Amino acid sequence: MRPDELRIALFSGNYNYVRDGANQALNRLVGFLLRQGAQVRIYSPTVDNPAFEPTGDLVSVPAFSIPTREEYRVPMALTEAVRRDLESFAPNVIHVASPDIVAHRAVSWARARGIPAVASVHTRFETYMQYYNLHWLEPVIRAILRRFYRRCDAIVVPAESTAAILRAQRMN
Questions:
Q1: Which uninterrupted H or E stretch holds 154?
Q2: Which CATH number is 3-168's, of 3.20.110.20, 3.40.50.2000, 1.10.940.10, 3.10.180.10?
Q3: From edge to edge, which strands make up the β-sheet containing 154-156?
Q4: Which of 66, 9, 21, 13 is nearest to 162 (CA)?
Q5: How far is CA 105 from CA 13, 46, 55, 98, in A?
Q6: Which helix (H) or strand (E) covers residue 160, if one does?
Q7: pLDDT tens string 7-23
Q8: Domain range annotation of the chain
Q9: CA atoms within 13 A on the CB side of 83
Q10: Which of 48, 89, 102, 149 is 20 to 30 A from 167 via CA?
Q11: How far apart are CA 112 and CA 120, in angstroms?
């Protein structure tokens, strides 16, 4: 498939409302894809005053703030309006960048239509439990992540060390 034939729907928990390394990488990726002629539409929570302007066409998904980190938002659902937009865009690739509820729904949407789903891993969410004194939850989170990533057709990571960890955890 040529780049100009790609229609990529990217689902991200944080595309531009807080600046971090993961969303900077995603914005650079989208910019590169657009320059190659691909069509990309991003589905992510939005805020009134984002940290920076998004690269590409950003569609807002409903989200709630994390109680202890209110600057971060968790996408809640693929609403009917978002689903209509997704259907209208007619992607031929689904890219999920965070294993949240909306990403789970996006992968299910892709599976039901025979569309490949690709996951990029930028954050090891299972390690966050230690910061909230919830070590006991780490195996549960890892099992949820394993189920999620195994439903994807491919997983991409920024470094071989991350790939080695995911292989050791049997994520793919």
A1: strand 154-156
A2: 3.40.50.2000
A3: 57-60, 39-44, 7-11, 93-96, 117-120, 154-156
A4: 21
A5: 13, 19, 24, 12
A6: helix 160-168
A7: 999 999 888 877 777 88
A8: 3-168
A9: 9
A10: 102
A11: 21
DSSP label at 98?
Answer: S
Q: What is the pTM of this model?
A: 0.89
CA distance 167 to 172: 7
Give the C-alpha distances (Å, rounded to integers) separating 60 from 5, 55, 102, 137, 166: 24, 14, 12, 30, 30
39's tokens: 């069509």
* Contacts (Cβ under 8 Å, ≥6 apart) of 113: none
